[in-house]
Specification:
The longest helix has 17 residues. The chain is 37% helix and 18% strand. The protein has a domain of 205 residues: 3-Layer(aba) Sandwich (Rossmann fold). Strands 3-2-1-4-5-6-11 form a seven-stranded parallel β-sheet, sandwiched between helices. A two-stranded parallel ribbon has the order 7-10. α3 packs parallel to α4, α5 packs across α9 and α8 runs antiparallel to α9. It has ten helices and 13 strands. The two termini are 33 Å apart. By secondary structure, the protein is an alpha/beta fold. The chain is globular.
C-alpha cells in the first residue's frame, strides 16, 4: 500500500513516518516544501520517497499523489507571518482536495482539533473544522480525528508548557486556565492514525480522541511540574487577556513556537474534551494511557 503524508516535515508527519516504518510494511511519500528536513534511517530509505511540493501548487501535488492509496493531511498555516492563516488553510484544502479527486486515493485521514461547533470557537478551531468540511466536500471517505493537545517532544503546545514550567518558578495564568482539556499522548494519537488506514467505515467520520483524563489547563501545568519535581507558584490573573499572555510567550519560547502559540491561545477558552464516544466503537482496541507516560 502507498501512503502519502502531506505536511510530512511537521511534528505529526515526522512521527507518523517513523511509526509506520517501524510497525508496517507500507511505502510512504513524504510530501512537504521542506522535505530535506525529514530524516530517514538507512534501512528504510527504499520505502520512503521524499517529495518537495507546496500545497498551493496543484500540478505538483497532483503528480505527487499518483499511485497513492491513502492520504494523511497535516497542514496548518499558523506559523506564517503577515497573512490570514484561515484563508490560507482553506485555499490549501481546496487545492489538495481537487488534486485528490484526480487520483486513485481511496481515503483521507486528517488531524483536527476538539471543540464543540455550537460553541463560540476560536479562529484556530473554526479553521481546523472548516478544513475538514472542505475535504468532505470533495471526497466521500474522510476520517477527521479531533484531538486536544498531543503530548510528546516537538508538540508546540506541549513544548510551550514545558518551557514555561522549566524556566520560571512563578507562572501567571489567564482566566481560561480553568477551562477543561483532554490531552492525548503521542503514541496513542499515532495508533489512531495508523488504525484509520484500514478501519471499516460506511461514510466519512468525525472521531473525537483524547486521553483518559479531563483536566483544567492549570491542573495540567501543575501535573507537569509535579512530574519534573519542580516547585512552582501559580498566580491566576482573570484580567490577563490573550494579547498580554501572548506577549509573555516571547520570553520562554522560540519565535516559531511563540507565533503559533499566540494563534492557539484563543482556543484555550474553548473546552477541548471528547463529547462523543465513537472512538471507542470504531477503535475498541485502543486504550489511551495517562499523559504522564509521554512527558519525557
Amino acid at each position: 500500500m502507498n501512503i502519502a503524508i502531506i505536511g510530512a516535515s511537521g511534528f505529526l508527519g515526522k512521527n507518523l513516518i517513523k511509526h509506520l516504518l517501524n510497525n508496517t510494511e507500507y511505502n510512504i511519500k513524504a510530501i512537504s516544501p521542506n522535505s530535506n528536513r525529514i530524516y530517514i534511517e538507512e534501512k528504510f530509505k527504499n520505502r520512503v520517497q521524499k517529495i518537495q511540493a507546496n500545497v498551493f501548487d496543484y500540478e505538483n501535488i497532483k503528480k505527487a499523489l499518483m499511485e497513492t492509496d491513502i492520504v494523511f493531511y497535516f497542514v496548518h498555516m499558523m506559523a506564517i507571518e503577515k497573512k490570514d492563516f484561515q484563508n490560507e488553510e482553506s485555499d490549501a484544502a481546496h487545492i489538495v482536495s481537487k488534486a485528490i479527486l484526480n487520483s486513485k486515493v481511496k481515503r483521507i485521514i486528517y488531524m483536527s482539533g476538539l471543540g464543540d461547533d455550537n460553541d463560540n470557537l476560536s479562529k484556530h478551531l473554526i479553521s481546523r473544522h472548516k478544513t475538514g468540511d472542505i475535504l468532505r466536500e470533495y471526497n466521500n471517505e474522510v476520517i477527521e480525528l479531533r484531538a486536544s493537545m498531543i503530548i510528546g517532544p516537538g508538540s508546540i503546545s506541549f513544548e510551550i508548557v514545558r518551557n514555561i514550567v522549566n524556566k520560571s518558578p512563578i507562572i501567571t495564568l489567564p482566566k481560561w486556565s480553568k477551562t477543561l482539556t483532554q490531552p492525548i499522548g503521542l503514541n496513542d494519537a499515532l495508533l489512531y492514525l495508523q488504525s484509520s488506514i484500514k478501519v471499516h467505515i460506511d461514510k466519512s467520520e468525525i472521531i473525537e480522541i483524547g486521553g483518559p483524563e479531563m483536566m483544567s489547563y492549570k491542573e495540567f501545568v501543575k501535573k507537569y511540574a509535579k512530574y519534573i519535581k519542580k516547585n512552582i507558584f501559580i498566580i491566576r490573573l482573570p484580567f490577563l487577556n490573550e494579547k498580554m499572555a501572548g506577549f509573555f510567550l516571547n520570553f520562554f519560547n522560540t519565535k516559531e513556537q511563540a507565533r503559533v502559540g499566540k494563534c492557539m491561545l484563543s482556543s484555550f477558552r474553548n473546552e477541548m474534551i471528547v463529547r462523543n464516544k465513537n472512538s471507542k466503537n470504531i477503535f475498541p482496541d485502543i486504550i489511551p494511557l495517562k499523559i504522564e507516560n509521554y512527558f519525557e
